[in-house]
Amino acid sequence: MQDIRSVDSVQRGPVDRDKVAAFRTRIATGAYRIDPRAIARAMIAFDLQTASG
After folding, report:
1. Which domain holds residue 43?
2. FRET pair for 37, CA 20 to 30 Å: which of 15, 27, 44, 46?
């Protein structure tokens, strides 16, 4: 499995800090629901993609 820090350093782009703050607020207040299954699917797809490349 690839270390996420190395992926982040390669794919780093501009970060919209206001958008990040808005998401953090929505998560903290319960206005944004996290879907653990969707996250798991995305993590598996990412792992499969990086393992084949």
Report:
1. 15-52
2. 15
